[in-house]
Amino acid sequence: MSLLSSLLVAGSGLRAASAGVSTTSHNVANASSEGFHVRSATVVTADPIRRGAAWFGQGTNLTGISRAADSFLARRQMSTAGDAAASYTLQTNLTQVETRFNESAADGIRERLDQFYDALTEATADPADRGLREGVNAAASRLGDVLRRTANGLDQQLSDFEDTMVGSVDAINEKIAKVAALNKGLQAAGGALKAGDLADQRDQLIRELAEEVGATAYFDGEGRATVMVGGHAVVSGIEARQILVDVSSGAPSVFMSADSGQVDLTAGVGGVLGGRIGAHALTVGYRERLDTFATDFAGAMNAQHQAGFDRAGAPGGDLFTFNAADPAGSFAPSSAVLASPDLLAFAAGPSANPGDAGNLEALMGTRTSGFVGADADTPEAWLTDLTSDVGRDTDTAGIAAEANQALLDDLDELDQNLHGVDLDEQAQNLITYQTAYQAAAKVLASTQSMLDTLMSIV
Amino acid sequence: MTTIRNTLLQATRTISGHVSQAKADLAVAEERALTGLKAQRPSDLPEGWYDAHALRAAIADQQSWTDNASRGSSILNTVESTLGSASDLLKVARERAVQGASETLATDERVTMAVEIDALRGQLLTLGNTQINGRYLFAGEAYDQPAFDAAGAYMGTTDVPTVMVGANRFIDNGFDGGEVFQGSVDAFQVLTDLADAMRADDAPGVAALLGDLDTALGQLIEGRQKVGYLTQDNADARAVAESMSVVFEERLNDVIGVDPVQAYSDLANLKTAYESTLQVSAGVLNGASLFNFLR
What we know:
The complex is a heterodimer of chains A (about 450) and B (about 300). Chain A is an alpha+beta fold. Chain A contains 11 helices and 13 strands. Chain A has 2 domains: about 5-70 and about 420-455, no CATH class; about 70-420, no CATH class. A 4-stranded antiparallel sheet of chain A has the order 5-6-7-8. Chain A has a 3-stranded antiparallel sheet with strand order 9-10-11. Chain A has a two-stranded antiparallel ribbon with strand order 1-4. In chain A, helix 1 (about 5-30) packs antiparallel against helix 11. Chain B is built from 8 helices and 4 strands. The model of chain B has no long low-confidence stretch (mean pLDDT about 90). With about 300 residues, chain B is mainly alpha-helical. In chain B, the strands form 2 sheets. A two-stranded antiparallel ribbon of chain B has the order 1-2. A two-stranded antiparallel ribbon of chain B has the order 3-4. The two termini of chain B are about 30 Å apart. Chain B has helices at about 10-35, 50-100, 105-130, 175-180, 185-200, 205-210, 210-255, 260-285; strands at about 130, 135, 160-165, 170. The interface between A and B is large, with 61 and 56 residues.
């Protein structure tokens, strides 16, 4: 082996150490970058050559920059991130819905219903008393106010959900398009450092899509990702498909544009969008239960009120009114009764005796009668079931969110343990590469000195 | 061998998670200490919300029944006092009847007594038409008009108004004046007849009315006894409502309230835990790294 060959071998060492320092530098720079996976310079011993009876080493070759990654773990992270985002969104959205019931201020529908019945109870003290009758009207008005306020609040909440869902689609489609573009870039880039960075960017985007729509991904042998939403590929290689949200029917639906038309993805959508669709569906159910209450309560009270007689001895009219198209949103005491409390039909007979409270007691009896909904619940039980269900749904979503987040934290920690940037490890690498570089440089210098010595002889 | 890496990103996430959790726990403890409640919304206590609703309703019911019992008490006290006065009037009338039945009494003295009896009858009629805020207490359900007309005819109803003072518990808060003043004997008519007999100087006729006077007086006494029972019932109902209100308040506090000592103790502990978390977090982020030793 010649001294010149030694120079080349030392040079390969310098290049390998230099690549190692460069990789370390890249790692340290990205130590806090989300989605970054640690890189390592892959160097292998160069093939030796034979000179006579001996094999002489040729130094080292840099074969590439590898990226630590685990596609199985990545898929689990994605699916768990989608679940966590869905349950967290469901919880936070239901918390907003829960506030619409105003239970924390003890000013909910149930409280107002109790106050209405208590006003009727107090009216037994003097059924003809104007003040007590106005008390009944005031309590009926407050019941109407809180029912309408809650119903309108839920309508507003549903509208907010729909606006947010529609508004999120552009960002989702932009990410879908970027993933396809990055797939294309990866296909072209090969295994250089750049390819790892593109893979990190793409995987981070897929993670975000998992959080936003519950996307999952499969990776082919060349590292290209196929991104699925609801069992359909929104990214296949370098092709991307747009999704859209349709809220026109009142039940939000998610579609994917396809060559044959639109594919309904609604049932399989997860993530934030899926959580919001779930919250929307539950809220629609709560709203319908309010309507059932308004319809059945007004129906029963009106029927009983019509069986009685007012202060003038005339048969009672409606006590509550509502618009059949929006019962809870329009529920209110009869304006005629509000204007004239004497029209409250507390008497059982037409005698116009002020102390006749026969129908007043019958109206009070509706409190313990079952007439609301298919199960014929009492009005109080119906409302308590409703608010308790809102609380239970919110609580359940919160528990699921905590569990999913804990699982996701574990998976992310595992990912960091396996693929993250450990600064101590990078410092060690830096020392190693620095020392190797210094040694190779020393070899280079020594070889050059030997060559100089040789040259001086000539 | 698999390398387990301790990364800056993971350390930051862990710290962030712990600090957020400590802060959230502290916020919950602060809310509990400030409000005295462990559940402010259904999701805080989904299963207990049924009890919370039922107990709040029960407390409101007790308050309504207490208010009604108070109103009823005012009426019953007035009725009792009125019937006491009516009894006194009839006792005076009976004393005059005993005097008027004496053969030794002069005619002009009987005529004078007749004038007095007329006055007593007028006063009894006024008592029969006693009212509170326009409500005639002896007119039954027709209490917006006088119970008796000037001739002493009953204008009210035999049905009486009731007030709700408990679950399915109603107490009369108005009376059938016809029964009280004109049961088996019409007290007004007896006094009219007595005055007429006095005016006619009819001593035996006056004596004959003593039995009716006793019966009329007995009716009033019986009425007072009934009012006494009702007053006791009303007081019992009010006491029950007030007592149950306290019981339900305590149960509601058990369901959604917190023990103040526990709440403040938890708050102090969590404050300390939060501060410790911040200190430890700062230590971790500023901790030793091999890079610190590289020159």
